[in-house]
Task: structure prediction
Amino acid sequence: MASEFNINDLQLKYLELETLLDITNELNSFDQVPDLLHEILVKSCAVLNASSGLILIEENNSDIFEIGAHFNIDISVFKGLIFNKRKGLIHDSTQIGKASTLNIEKHSFLSKTHCKYALMAPLSEKKNLVGLIILFDKESRSGISPFQDADTNMLSAIASQASVAYNNIKLLENIKEAKTFNDNVMQSIVTGVFTTNLMGEINHINRAAATIINLEKEQILGNHYEYIFQFNNSITQMISKCENDSVSLSESQIVLHCNDKLTTVNISVSPLLNDMNESIGSVVAMEDLSNIDKLKSTFKKYVSKQIVDQLLENEEMQNLGGQEQDATILFSDIRGFTSMSETMTPNEVVDTLNEYFNLMIEIIFKYNGTLDKIIGDALMVIYGAPKSTKKDTENAVLTAIEMQEKLIEFNQRRIINSLLPITIGIGINRGKVISGNIGSRQQMNFTVIGDSVNLASRLCSAAKAGEIIVSETVWVNIKSNKLLKSQKLIPIKVKGKSLPIKIREITYAKSFFNYGVVYGMIEEFLIQRLPKEYTYHTIHHIRDVVKQSERIAKKEKLSLEDTADLKLAAWLHDVGYIWELNHHEVRGAAYAKSILSALNFPTSKIKRITDMILATKIPQSPKNILEQVLCDADLDYLGRKDYHAISLLLLKEFRLNKEISDLEWLKLQDSFLSKHSYFTKTSHSTRNKCKAHVLESIRQSLNI
Amino acid sequence: MSDFITSVKENNSIVIIETNGYLNNIGGEAVSAVVYEKIAQGQSKFLINMAGTKIVNSIGVSILIEVIEKLQEVNGKLGYYNLAPIVSKTFNIMGLTKYSTIFETEEAAVNGL
Result:
């Protein structure tokens, strides 16, 4: 009977195998070193019948080992001990390099455990010792006994498995650390960066990129880039090309439209490669340009893409030195800016220069110019260096013309906003220059120097406001373009030249009054400046008056020119409300006179505009058909079905300045409508009937 | 009472021994000492609550076998409950469950022994 219960060797071997299998299966499920070590130790003690045990493990990057796990043992006896890799037990174990029994008496610290027998096995990473499993006192029914060879083999097998699991965890920790490091780097850089996988899904993104895309990271991750950038063909095409051709691409100044937000960015897309150099997706970097302080960026060196590409392709060009070549140089300078800026606050000066430079630099880049310098309010632009084309000089002249033309439009807006206009003079010369990277190694700028550059600067100084002065060399170079016109000027004497220099002025349409543009600018001005508390004298009323003026003018068969002037007066007839309520017509007429004169509106016609505005003062007093049309248009709503809705808006605005009861308001309307009469036949025929109904309804309300 | 035995109580004429720690030579001896003492007092049914014992070695198991042998002499029974999976597996491999019973809970053990 008793034999039935005896544990036989077969069962023990079965238990050992099962334990080893368990260890193999379970160890890889741990992701924390302490948990893993404890499990290894407990399982080892159990399967080998050890009474206790401990694991010494290497401290990170040091020669010192520490207790990583202990089982059934009082570790206070080890207090103050240093487990040094270079001597003692650890050193000996390194020498032995495999599982073996230990001589307790040889190692003083083991004797502190009061154990008799010990078995150790190394934990290794490749051939390096990273830890040591030590088991104490093999138990038997008769007491403590020495470990056997089979125990050594078993612990060796467990240690092998444990080493793999331990190294996996350390590897995982290293990967996590590297990932955290990368994430931190990614998150801290201001450039937006994201990566896509082979499926085109965005799988990593930093904070800056999410800000540019204007979505939360969670809303972006996992989505296809085509979906995230569905309104941005340029970027999707770049990524697609990068994916298909495994090429790096970059684009400057792309306007991204993401989630109702527009952001100007520089974008570069590169293939993402694995260890085998195979593409596993793309990495996209986006530099947000909208946050760059405009003025600061304006004062930075602007280099055209053309030059950057050449510099990148040709390393020699990155070195100091230069070459002689032909180039065209443009200088521009704001006339009288110093005295003008004296009347402005520092912020206004900065805003004005910002706006001006942005406009000009856009034109310069349009014609492939390289902005070499900004000196105060002056610009120096190079065409044809380092690489020249046949169109360099023509591009310089076209730049100058467009700069002057755009400035007219720029000034129209400033004039309408009661700001002083900016005028510039431009000088252009072509000739031999020394081009290259000039400066110290710390600060090296591509530029051109030489007499030709100096002459361009002198021509700019000679140019009056609105003029483009070019040297004869420039004109000879471009005169085949029949669209470009010039006129000879008296040769000028310049410093450093013994003979007078032949010069020409490039002519262009300097002064024109574009009604459409001015209407738009006045509308913009009114939207911005009309008092927001007004409910009747709003942009809607002014647009209505413009519309009715045009309608009546057409019926009255007014000429196109008269209609254009009429509409101009209509746009301006209530502008005076911006500044004052009571005499707004007078104030508005004064404003109109001031801006129309500055906008080169024919002087002879300015008075008809101001008279039209003044005629709208109640009681209306038109003296000609244009004034009659404007007066009728101004009160057109009196004879329309929307009268009551509009009059409520007028009442609301009226009550901003004066208390008035509903009855008083009805009486006021009755009085006003009874006395009012349209001036034009058109308004009589189209509005009188309805106006009579309106009056009748008001009188009914008054029980008259 | 050794550290391994944390409590000994009776429920419905069954002695319930609660253990904590390594069921090895020392732990096994502690259990057998309690059982033998209770047998001498006339008890024959024993349950071990092993909630606190997560690890066991073959020596501990062999002592439990000796306890079972002793109980068979008095027509007694031994059962266990609250076993960790690894302990349960070891008991199965070592053949312990042929002669003693593993229960899920104390209630099941008291009713089923």
